[in-house]
Amino acid sequence: MSTLAHTMMTAARSADSGLASPGELDRYPYAEAPGADRVGAPVWDGADTELGRVGRRTAGSRGRGLHGQLVQQLGQMIVSGDLGADRPLVPEEIGQRFEVSRTVVRESLRVLEAKGLVSARPNVGTRVRPVSDWNLLDPDIIEWRAFGPQRDDQRRELTELRWTIEPLAARLAAGHGREDIQQRLSDMVEIMGHAMGQGDALTFARADSEFHALLIQIAGNRMLEHLSGIVSAALQVSGGPVAGCERPNDASLEHHGRIVEALAGGDGAAAEAAMRQLLMVHPEVERVVPAPREH
């Protein structure tokens, strides 16, 4: 095993003990705010059980502070539909229910506004925006949709998007290859092989994600490179909360290896074909690839 493979697998195992599954929240109940049950207290359309707690991930996960946790919680509630479109969000109420400062609430709402989930207007306040206004390419929104009521649609849409992006990236990468990055791609395939042999899905997932990010990076198209975060998010949610990646298997590993071989030979057509074969391993691809035409 290479030094890189050993280092990566060791790091993954050490982090695994404290890693929450994608989309999973370790709930930490906060004390109810004083007077929360009084008559006339704000009602959040049945979401009170959620508003009394902030989703806290264990240390070593995303490294988010209280501000990030509040973004996560409110974002999930909006995307899941618990807080519907045009719903008013009162900062004072949020601060009281979550027991966080006005600064934390204000900064969290700004993040959600940047993602298109809420809007803040003078004399109107902050309100939840309709789905048509959301930044659906934002990695956080991708994750929230993938582990919420829209999970099936989100995973299908991600697979369709990957089918559009990655075969082209593989073809372009064959003409813009750099030896150092191609060696790194080979290293990732080696790491994936060792991880699969040891049943280490976490290391497999990390190597797989880096493989696809590197491939898009050497395609030489800055607009495609801008979409690499979408592919990473798709890989994170495609296998569900257990593996967090494409399920490790021999077919997947073989197609990754063929892509590397095609890139080394400068064969764009072969690289594109190998990537299409890799995407066919995806369990949802039958709903993406058009059926052959009848002649």
Characterization of this structure:
This protein is mainly alpha-helical and 295 residues long. It is built from 14 helices and 5 strands. It has helices spanning 3-16, 48-51, 66-80, 91-98, 102-114, 139-146, 151-173, 179-197, 201-217, 222-226, 228-238, 240-243, 250-264, 268-280, and strands at residues 26-29, 53-56, 88-89, 118-121, 125-128. The strands form 2 sheets. It has a 3-stranded antiparallel beta sheet. A two-stranded antiparallel ribbon has the order 1-2. Strand 4 and strand 5 (125-128) form a beta hairpin. The chain starts with a helix and ends in a 15-residue tail after the last helix. Residues 13-63, 240-245 and 284-295 have low confidence and may be disordered.
- Encode the helix/strand succession as letters: HEHEHEHHEEHHHHHHHHH
Look at the helices and sheets and give the structural class: mainly alpha
In terms of DSSP E residues, the strand content is: 5-15%
Major β-sheet annotation: 3 strands, antiparallel
